[in-house]
Amino acid sequence: MDSHERQTIAGQAIYTKLVSNWWIWKCPTPIILTYYDRHMSDNHLDVGVGTGYYLVRAKYPSANPRIVLFDLNSNALEHTMNRIARFAPESHQVDVLEPISLKGHAKFDSVGINYLLHCLPGVGISGKSCVFDHLRETMNDDAVLFGATILGRELPRSWVAKKLIAIYNSKGVFSNRDDGLVDLKGELEKRFRDVDIEDFGCVATFSACDLLAKS
User: Fold this and answer.
1) Cys bridge to 176: 25, 105, 118, 141, which one at CB 3.0-4.6 A?
2) Would you say which domain of life the source belongs to (predicted)?
3) Mean pLDDT to the nearest integer, 92-116
4) How many Cα atoms are found within 13 Å in the side-chain-facing hemisphere of 185?
5) What does pLDDT average to over the chain?
6) Checking DSSP bridges between strand 203-211 and strand 192-200, what pairing results, if any?
7) pLDDT per residue over 74-86, tens digit each?
């Protein structure tokens, strides 16, 4: 396992624990759940699944959705698979910083990347923006990409949030010290015509659709 993969796993490992810090980031859980309810299709890919909290509670558009899970952390995949077993989900151990092959599988109409970007190694959003290119390859033309990420700059942070971000960056749990709102918007707008971003505390929630032609 190389250092890149170890850092990615470290960034996701915190979500295998029963830890909830939403009050520190000042983005109430129902806000993110609303994004799932609004954007999730019945042909959905969820990337960086964490504990599966939102997949368990989301309002699905049909009784039998196609749900596929991508995560580098096998514990997270197994845990979430068990929690949403009623949908017979499919799971794959995938590093989204590397090109993704669907191996003949159909593309998706929605892709969720909730609380993923701040865990990925890279300097700033631009340093990890290849994830958007790789996920584009999994999306149908009219699909939507949505999620939330904790930003390390450009948004107000309490002293507790600043301290926790510093600690998590030093431990390799987060890699978001240089992640900012302007870069997030810019990188999404390079790839999608319709981009919507809101901020709550030090969290940016976003949705992006209508794929731009590749340059």
Assistant:
1) 118
2) Eukaryota
3) 94
4) 9
5) 90
6) antiparallel
7) 999 999 999 999 9
Using a 10 angstrom Cβ sphere, with 0-12 exposed, 13-18 middle and 19 or more buried, the burial of residue 31 is: middle
Count of other CB atoms within 10 angstroms of residue 69:
24
Tokens of 6: 């170890």
- What pLDDT, on a 0 to 100 scale, did the predictor assign at position 20? 54
Mean pLDDT of 64-93: 96
Q: Which three-class secondary structure state does DSSP give residue 14?
A: helix
| Alpha-helix residue ranges (DSSP H) falling in the chain | 3-13, 22-25, 29-39, 53-57, 74-83, 130-136, 159-171, 181-189
Q: What is the DSSP letter of 175?
A: -
CA distance linking residue 147 with residue 39, whole number of Å: 10
Prediction pTM value: 0.89
pLDDT for the residue 213: 87
| φ, ψ (nearest 5 deg) of residue 90 | -115, 140
Architecture in CATH for domain 3-210: 3-Layer(aba) Sandwich (3.40)
Yes or no: say if 139 and 115 are a contact pair by the CB < 8 Å rule: no
